[in-house]
Amino acid sequence: MSTVATTQIKLTPERSRPSVRARLQDALPKIVLAPSFAITIVFVYGFIMWTVYLSFTNSKTFPSYVITGPRAYLRLWGWTFDSDPPSSWYTSIVNMGIFGFLYIAICLALGLFLAILLDQKIRGEGVLRPIYLYPMALSFIVTGVAWKWFLDPGLGLEQTLHQWGWTSFHFDWIKNKDFVIYTVVIAGVWQASGFIMAMFLAGLRGIDGEIMKAAQIDGATTFQLYRRIVIPLLRPIFLSAFIVLAHLAIKSYDLVVALTSGGPGGSAWLPSNFMYEYTFKRNEMAVGSASAVIMLMTIVAIIVPYLYSELREKPR
Questions:
Q1: Which residue of 29, 50, 139, 178 sits 20 to 30 Å from the alpha carbon of 235, by its own alpha carbon?
Q2: Whole-model pTM?
C-alpha cells in the first residue's frame, strides 16, 4: 500500500492595485476642498488667533507686537464694575442683555405661535409662508433703514397718525435714550420670527399623527396636547432656534447702525458696536480686540455645549 503525499498549496489572490482613474476619483474631493479649507484656516482661524494676540498688546492705531499682558481686559473689567458714570462698555453689556433676552424670547414665542396657526392647514398657507419668510431674505441694513423711516417721529407712524387727527399720539422711542434699544428688538423680531416659524413648522409636520390621535382619544384637550406632547417633542427645534438667535444677537452690528446710528450718545450700542468704535475710530485696537475676544468666548460658550449634546454617542 503506497502512501501518496499530497501537498496542498494555498493560493492567495493577488491584490489588484487601484487604477489611476480610481485614485483620481478618490482624491478629487480633497483637491476641490483643499483651497477653501486653506482659506478658512488662514482668514478665519488665523485672524482669530491674531486678534487674541493683539488683545494682549498695547496696540493703538496700528498693531503692536509687544506683549503687555491682560491690560485691555482689566480696563474692560473696570469699565464694567467701577465706572461712574456708566461707561460705553457697560452700556453695551446691558443692552446686549436686554436685546438678547427679548429678541430670543419673542422670536421663539411668536415663531411657535405662527407655526401652530399654519399647521392647522388653513386656506392660503402657501401665500402666508413666503410673506412671513420674506423679511429674513433682507439684510439687516435694509431692515434697519425701513424701520428707521417707520419709527421716526417726523416721517413714519407718529407723523401719519397726526395727519389722520390723532395728535395726542406720541412714539419717540427711536429718539429716547432709555427706549431706543427696544426699537432694535422690534426690528430684529420682525426679521427673524418668520424664519423661526419655518423651523417650528417643519418640526410640527414631522410629528407622528398617530400620537396626536391617541392623545385625543384619551380625552386630551388641545392645550394639553400641545403642552404635554407637541412642545416637548419640539425640544431639538427649540435648541437649534436658540443657537441661531443667540448667534445673530451677539454679532448684531449693522441693524443698530442702520436703525439708530448708535442711538443718542451711544445708548443703543451693542458689544459689536463698541468693538468697531474703539478699534477703528478711537484708536484703541487692543481694547477693541479684547472686546471681540469676549464676544467670541460668549458664542463659544453657547455653541460648544450644543455641539457636545448633538455629537456625543448615545448610550446603547
A1: 139
A2: 0.84
Q: Which amino acid is at 292?
A: A
pLDDT digits (tens, 9 = 90+) for 57-74: 999 988 888 899 899 999
CA-to-CA distance for 189 and 108, rounded, in angstroms?
A: 9
The angle subtended at Cα 150 by Cα 147 and Cα 154, nearest 5°, is 130
Nearest to 286 by CA among 44, 76, 45, 47: 76
Q: What is the CA radius of gyration of the chain?
A: 29
Per-residue cell: 312? 456625543
d(CA 98, CA 179): 11
Q: How far apart, in whole angstroms, are the C-alpha atoms of residue 294 and residue 300?
A: 10
Backbone dihedral angles phi then psi of residue 67, each to the nearest 5 degrees: -70, 125
CA 19 → CA 12, 36, 261, distances in Å? 21, 28, 62
Low-confidence ranges of the chain (pLDDT < 70): 1-18, 313-316
C-alpha closest to that of 246 among 111, 57, 108: 108
